[in-house]
Amino acid sequence: MSDKASSYTILWASQTGNAEWIAKSIHSEAKERGYVGDCLPMDVYETVGLDKVRVLIIVAANTGDGDPPDHSLKFWRFMRRNKDTGYFKSCQYTILGLGDTNYTNFNNTAKRLDRRLKDLGATSFYPKGLADDAEGLESVVDPWIEKLWDALPKVLEKNNEGSSEKVDDLAKKVEEVKIEPTNPYSPDERAKNIPPEAEKYLNLENSLVEKKKTKDHLGHALKLDFSGLQSGMQLSGMPRVPAASIKLVRLEATRPINETPSTQCVVTPAPITEASVSRVQCLTTQEAMKRTLHVELDIGEGLDYEPGDAFGVVAPNDESLVEAILERLVPSTAEAYQALYNVEGDGLPTHLQNSKSVTLADLLRNVVDLTTTPRKALLRMLADYTSNAEEKTKLIYISSKQGVAQFNSVREQVPTLLDILKTFPSCNPPIERLLDALPPHMPRYYSIASSPLKFPGKIHFAFNIIDYKNIYDVPRKGVATPWLDQLTGYVAARSTKTGNMVDVAAKSIKVPIFRKENTNAFILPSDTKRPLVLIGPGTGIAPFIGFLQHRQQQLRIRKSMGGVGTHPSRDIKKEFGDIWVYYGFRERAKDYLFEQELEEFVKDGTITNLRLAISRDEPENKTYVQDLIRKDLDKLYELIVNQDAACYVCGDAKGMAKGVNDALVEMLVQHHQLDVVAANKLLIEWMGSRKYLRDLWA
Ligand SMILES: Cc1cc2nc3c(=O)[nH]c(=O)nc-3n(C[C@H](O)[C@H](O)[C@H](O)COP(=O)(O)O)c2cc1C
């Protein structure tokens, strides 16, 4: 009998859908190649009987500060608590990590898992891959999967030789596309590729003729240089076309055109609450580089929170973009807003699991992502629905190994789906296939910038409106922040030093939100005596406004209870540790966020020391928070090491968080007699003991 295993298990841990999608693609290709196995989210590991698994493939992403995705925390607890060094002795494994080099803890989850599996007796059958979202996951993921097919037969038996041969041929065909510009992709062939369900609502004849495109101005054709693409060229390394698994089943009922779309199709980790916007304020002046809004939501009794928590906002894709894509792809936009469907299919991805009784517009508005950089597999799939031979070839080229420069150029231009369709006018994919290939539309998370002690029943948050031009001067915008700006009526930029919050309660503006579990313990220590060092430039100050309000209120409550002895007020103050705040912005007159509030915290003693790093008031003397920290190393050493202060960092993962980390390493080298390696190790220990906490974004 062969000593190879007869089946594999794929476990995935995903926060925003990439790992899920990649794991499922591996699973579907493995099945086609004749292997047998399962593909499961990490949180259901108990159903697998992990000690029996002989071939394990893990696809793991990161969130927070090198933390595992939220849904996999139970698995991690199990792995940490497992002390049986032989638990995985019959398991051969490999790991594909999805990370981002903008974060200091690059691919921490995959690296930790690798170590832990080895400690528990598992053996690696194929080296781990560490993909980097900063440069495009594909450049590591695609070759890693390709070589997995060479490694797998050494540990795993094929159960279905017949099917595998067919697939090998198929794979070969996909790998080696020979460019034949004179071979047009006919409408007939295209029709063959449209799943039968799609034909029920797609009038194929109509969809292939030019339609009036009233929203066409919204799309911008990409600027791409195809001079490297030559006739007769052999192309290789294309991603596989995502399996056609989604079916749209048309229902009898229709939705009245004037009915407000609901968010019931959105899959969120906690139930959605409709919160009313009560007040709003622009924290920056007209002349500031960025526009920053401060919004207050009325949450009533519905949502408990503590400072440091975050919450999710369910923001729709831009409606005119949704409409323009529908106008471009379906024969009747009106129908796309009214006809109801159930989304069905084997192993539906998580984000499609609530898509019942939905319109095509609902799906594009709330379920799939229309604005993030396209995956290569999407471009490859679009090629299959492109009738013009030259355009089709270009799409295949961009998704191939040879077209990597063009793919990078696509990424750089941050196109919407409409831009891609505009670049390739004869491309007409059915909506089902888009659902197969587009990433999930994700909720946006914000740190709460208030304390329930100061604002019971309310939450505050602050954010920059994402609105910029790409390298070719084409306007680009975010999803949630321009939507919130529009929803709250584009309040005027502040003109005075402080500005006031505008009461908009009467407008009954609703924002769908949900609670986010605080998985990284970014909360105040319960002991108020413990000193704090809070480092957060820009909107990184937001959670600290909540921390400071909380401490301010705690102090007021404590004072109102009165004290004993000759100096009650001084004795009470001793029950509250010092708070040092490092805060940064560009220009004092334009983007000093929460200026009035911070000054009040200083005045009433909530903040012991407010250190302001201003980067543009004196262009020759740019100061960042890490520069101020470097100036204060001896005092900070006293506070952090001798007085056991907890140190919090919030904001940009790359420049700021790295700079602050380096400054803290310097502090430990200078004052704690450690070398750089030992100092870094101590900082990691502090993270584990919640003395050094970071809430970062790229
Ligand atoms: C809020 C956030 C925090 C992240 N933190 C890290 C990190 O600390 N280290 C890292 O290597 N990648 C980090 N990433 C990058 C993700 O691992 C990467 O984008 C991955 O493709 C996400 O996969 P998913 O869609 O399956 O969640 C972070 C991404 C986000 C959005």
From TrEMBL:
One Gene Ontology CC term in the entry: cytosol
Any one GO BP annotation for this protein: homocysteine metabolic process
CC cofactor: FMN; FAD
PROSITE patterns: FAD_FR, FLAVODOXIN_LIKE
Domain FAD-binding FR-type: 270-525
Name of the protein in its database record: Methionine synthase reductase
Molecular function as annotated in GO: [methionine synthase] reductase (NADPH) activity; flavin adenine dinucleotide binding; FMN binding
Keywords carried by this UniProt record: Amino-acid biosynthesis, FAD, Flavoprotein, FMN, Methionine biosynthesis, NADP, Oxidoreductase, S-adenosyl-L-methionine
Catalytic activity, EC: 1.16.1.8
Flavodoxin-like domain boundaries: 8-149
Lineage top rank: taxon: Eukaryota
EC class (word): oxidoreductase
